């Protein structure tokens, strides 16, 4: 006999559709929610709904924002000739926290991963090329994660843009290989940005 109440099973099925969340993790999350004081749990769900309603991607750079155009893209004092290419919005948020960067960002929305079926068409690569053509871009800094997939993604885009008259650089390996940008501390990230290497 299956004793799992339908409403719980439904939540578990929904959560386990998220990448990286298996059935067991989804179960744990559902149980933890049910164990929370009801008011707090309802508050959490309300905030989730609010986030889904308010947050979308910046029309220019693809970063998470509550505005049509994000604070970086709409800031006239930013250096529009430099674009830092990251996998996810939170990578850009981390770099921004270092206060060492004054250019623009471009969020790919992931990295190439043939195993997970993520090809170039699933990433915001075309819009990056469009921006390079449209803006007077002089430098592209790849700040994809120092992982095999992150490297492959940077190399793929590098090949597409290497004939443009721009400087192409990559964050230096002050970052641990196999690590995740989001987990790096401010100092390591600032150093890596300072020591970026020119690729072309
Ligand atoms: Zn933007």
TrEMBL record:
Zinc-finger ranges (C4-type): 58-73
Keyword Zinc-finger: yes
Entry keyword set: DNA damage, DNA recombination, DNA repair, Metal-binding, Zinc, Zinc-finger
SUPFAM superfamilies, A to Z: Recombination protein RecR
Gene3D superfamilies attached to this UniProt entry: 3.30.60.80, 3.40.1360.10, RecR Domain 1
Domain Toprim as annotated: residue spans: 81-176
PROSITE patterns recorded: RECR, TOPRIM
Calcium found in the keyword field: no
Domain of life: Bacteria
Annotated GO biological process: DNA recombination; DNA repair
Gene Ontology MF: a single term: DNA binding
CDD domains: TOPRIM_recR
Pfam family, one: RecR_ZnF
Family: Belongs to the RecR family.
Function summary: May play a role in DNA repair. It seems to be involved in an RecBC-independent recombinational process of DNA repair. It may act with RecF and RecO.
Database matches in NCBIfam families: recR
PANTHER family: RECOMBINATION PROTEIN RECR
Name of the featured protein: Recombination protein RecR
Organism the protein comes from: Sulfurihydrogenibium yellowstonense SS-5
Gene that produces this protein: recR
């Amino acid at each position: 006999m299956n004793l799992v109440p339908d409403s719980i099973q439904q939540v578990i099925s929904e959560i386990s559709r998220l990448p990286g969340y298996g059935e067991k993790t989804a179960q744990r999350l559902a149980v933890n929610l049910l164990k929370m004081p009801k008011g707090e749990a309802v508050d959490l769900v309300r905030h989730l709904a609010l986030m889904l309603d308010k947050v979308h991607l910046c029309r220019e750079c693809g970063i998470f924002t509550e505005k049509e155009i994000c604070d970086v893209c709409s800031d006239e004092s930013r250096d529009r000739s430099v674009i830092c290419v990251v996998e996810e919005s939170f990578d850009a948020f981390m770099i921004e926290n270092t206060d060492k960067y004054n250019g623009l960002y471009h969020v790919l929305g992931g990295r190439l991963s043939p195993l997970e079926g993520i090809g170039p068409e699933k990433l915001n690569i075309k819009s990056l090329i469009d921006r390079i053509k449209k803006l007077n871009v002089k430098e592209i800094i790849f700040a994809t994660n120092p992982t095999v997939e992150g490297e492959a993604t940077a190399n793929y885009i590098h090949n597409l843009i290497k004939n443009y008259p721009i400087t192409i650089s990559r964050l230096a390996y002050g970052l641990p290989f196999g690590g995740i940008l989001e987990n790096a501390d401010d100092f390591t990230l600032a150093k890596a940005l300072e020591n970026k290497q020119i690729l072309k």
